[in-house]
Every structure is written in C-alpha cells, then in structure tokens.
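In response to the reviewer comment on reproducibility (Comment 2.3), we provide here a single inverse folding case reported in full, input and output, so that an independent group could reproduce the run without further information from us. The structure tokens appear first.
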C-alpha cells in the first residue's frame, strides 16, 4: 500500500514521528509532502532532525500571503504530487491550511483521504481551524477522531460508523514515547510555561495588550517560547520591549520538541491558546489556563481541569495564583497506541480487502 502524507506546520511534525514508525512497521510505503506552510528551521526541519523523521520527499517553497493565496498554492502543489505518485490514500492531520489543501486536492482526484484528528467542533464558526476541520472531514473517506466527543460529533453529523474510528490521540503517542526514551519526569517547578499564537489573540491589539499586561503585573516567573507570528505582532503593537525588559519573563525562540517537553514537564502551570499544548499539559497533569474561549476538549473544561480566562487580565492574574484543579484526571486521549491502531485499520481496509 502506498500513501502520501501531507504535512506543513509544527503540530503536524511530532505526530508524523509516531505515524511514520507505525506505517513502516506495517510495510506501508509513505511519501511525505511538506507544503512549506511553516518554513523557519525551528518551526519545521528541526523536528525532522531531532526526531529522526525521514526528510520530506517533496518540500514546497515558502508561500506568504493571506489564506486564499497560501491554501491555493498548497492545493496546486499537492495536486501535482498526487498525480505523480498515484497513492492509494492521502493522509492529512489536524486543522491547518495544509490539512484542507491536502484533503481537497486528493478528493478532487478521487484518491481517498484519511483525516487524523477529525470531528473536533468548537462551534466557533469563523475560527480558521474550525473551517479547515469541517472541509477536511467532508473530503475524507475514513476519519480518525482522537477523542470521544469528536467521534460523537461525527456520528451526530451523519458520518457512517463504518468510516469513523476512535483510536486515541497520536500526539499522546509521541509524548509518551519521548518521555520514556528521554526519561522526562513531570514535576511542578517554580515557573509557568506560556505559549500564544492564535490569530484571535495575536492580531487583536487589545487582547494582546491585556495578556501582556497580566504577565507584567504578575509576580510569577514565566518561560515563553515565542511563535514567529506572535513575535511579529508583539513588535508591531509595541509590546515586545516591555516583555524583553521583564526579568521574570524568559522569552525564547520557538523550541525543538524535546526542549519544549522538558519545559512543559517542569512547569507549575501552563498558560496557552494552543490546541496541542493544552492536551499535552493535561496529560502531564498541569493546571491548564486557556487564553482563548475556544473549547476543543469540552470535558477538560467542564470537569474543571482547564480554566478559560480568555484575554481577561484580572482573570489571568487570578488563575495564575489560585487555579488548582484536581491532579488525578480521567484518560481522555487513548493509551499511546493510536498510530499503531490507525495503521492496522488502514491495512485491513485498503490491503486485506
Ligand atoms: C498555523 C495554523 C494554526 C496552528 C499553527 C501552529 C492555519 C490557518 N493556522 O498558524 O491552526 O495552530 O499554525 O503553530 O493553518 N511565520 C514565520 N515563520 C514560520 C511560520 C510562520 O515567520 O515558520 C509567520 C509568518 O509571518 C506567517 C505567520 O507566522 O505569515 C502566520 O503563519 P501561518 O502558517 O499562516 O499561521 P500560524 O499562525 O502559524
Ligand atoms: N511545541 C514545540 N515547541 C514550542 C512550542 C510548541 O515543539 O516552542 C510543540 C508542542 O509540544 C505541541 C505542538 O508544538 O506538540 C503544538 O503546536 P502549536 O501550539 O504550534 O499548534 P496547535 O497545536 O495550536 O495547532
């Protein structure tokens, strides 16, 4: 069986680590296409190097511009590769523009699509990730939601249970492997880890200002690896200097996965608007403070393990001091064997049929 995996942004690469191994173990021939959506070394090729992921077979030039221009260029690129490679299946993951480009190009060529992390719904209709996920789901022949509520959403929307498989979260597979291989233990340290990159926060001066004010007014210490988009926006809105001048805030470039997981494992609390980091923080039993009101794992919030403070300065300051969720928590993300299960289902469906 031959597949094409379409990747393009940071959150795709650590999942590719678990997927490529599972595909290899099942004799699935994998061609990796990198759309070029993320292009800085530390947002892209660093992950291939440090995690020993095979280099992409195709890697696109940098495409800068608005969503239409970026997605259109990636669509054309993936279409060309699929015409050349003629795979049995295209794999896309998550909810970024590369996901939707890969899924759409493939479905139009009548090449079946598998969508990993399908089905998540935030009911935030114009959120870019929500749009990408809905389109990718529509284009997919086989869907792999990573959590129960995503599985339930898909069935509720009329997807056939024969095509929807709940296998767990590939991101957890990678996290557990790396923790085991590098003996990383989760302990509550004396700093909080912060990540911030959602367009809703970075592109809105008022929200960004409010979050930065909370950091500056807090007496706590923070480690803050800064996404390139966020650095550019902080600079643009004149907010970067005050963060740089604050001795309690360690501003870092985007980190490799190993370094990031070490900081995450050692953090006291985690403040984030990331879809992936909130799940990793939950798995490592950290209090999760959400800097956006988009809920991607409802039970995390409803049961009090994650707290939405949005960009509200007073709520952020209060949560930094007072948020104490229970340490013991239910398993929401599977058993760390999602990639193996996915590969097995693909072989049974497309090879042993
Ligand atoms: C994208 C995804 C988002 C995901 C995030 C993961 C979409 C619509 N958004 O957001 O869902 O959570 O990736 O990190 O697909 N930039 C660089 N260097 C890079 C990458 C980006 O400088 O290597 C800067 C550029 O100014 C670029 C901007 O960041 O224009 C935005 O990049 P883009 O890939 O469009 O969106 P992200 O904000 O990274
Ligand atoms: N991550 C990383 N270095 C960093 C910040 C995050 O390796 O400096 C990892 C993190 O462990 C998680 C993934 O990047 O696996 C999440 O990506 P991001 O927050 O960019 O995107 P999202 O998950 O919100 O789409």
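Designed residues, in position order:
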């Amino acid at each position: 069986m031959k597949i094409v995996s379409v990747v393009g942004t940071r959150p795709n690469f650590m999942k590719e680590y678990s997927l490529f191994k599972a595909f290899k173990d099942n004799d699935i021939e994998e061609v990796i296409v990198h759309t070029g959506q993320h292009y800085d070394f530390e947002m892209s090729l660093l992950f291939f190097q440090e995690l020993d992921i095979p280099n992409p077979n195709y890697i696109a030039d940098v495409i800068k511009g608005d969503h239409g221009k970026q997605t259109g260029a990636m669509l054309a690129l993936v279409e060309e590769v699929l015409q050349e490679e003629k795979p049995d299946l295209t794999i896309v993951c998550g909810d970024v523009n590369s996901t939707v480009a890969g899924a759409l190009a493939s479905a139009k060529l009548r090449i079946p699509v598998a969508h990993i992390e399908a089905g998540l719904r935030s009911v935030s209709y114009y959120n870019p990730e929500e749009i990408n996920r809905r389109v990718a789901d529509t284009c997919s022949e086989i869907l792999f939601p990573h959590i129960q509520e995503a599985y339930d959403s898909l069935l509720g929307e009329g997807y056939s249970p024969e095509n929807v498989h709940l296998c767990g979260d590939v991101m957890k597979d990678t996290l557990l492997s790396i923790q085991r291989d590098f003996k990383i233990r989760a302990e509550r340290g004396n700093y909080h880890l912060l990540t911030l990159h959602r367009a809703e926060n970075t592109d809105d001066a008022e929200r960004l200002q409010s979050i930065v004010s909370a950091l500056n007014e807090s007496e706590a210490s923070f480690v803050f690896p800064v996404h390139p988009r966020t650095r550019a926006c902080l600079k643009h809105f004149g907010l970067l200097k005050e963060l740089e001048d604050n001795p309690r805030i360690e501003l870092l470039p985007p980190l490799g996965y190993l370094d990031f997981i070490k900081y995450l494992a050692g953090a006291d609390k985690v403040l984030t608007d990331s879809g992936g980091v909130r799940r990793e923080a939950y798995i490592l039993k950290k209090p999760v403070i959400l800097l956006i009101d988009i809920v991607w794992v409802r039970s995390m919030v409803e049961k009090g393990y994650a707290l939405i403070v949005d960009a509200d300065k007073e709520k952020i300051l209060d949560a930094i001091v007072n948020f104490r969720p229970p340490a013991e928590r239910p398993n929401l993300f599977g058993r760390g064997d999602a990639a193996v299960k996915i590969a097995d289902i693909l072989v049974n469906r497309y090879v042993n049929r």
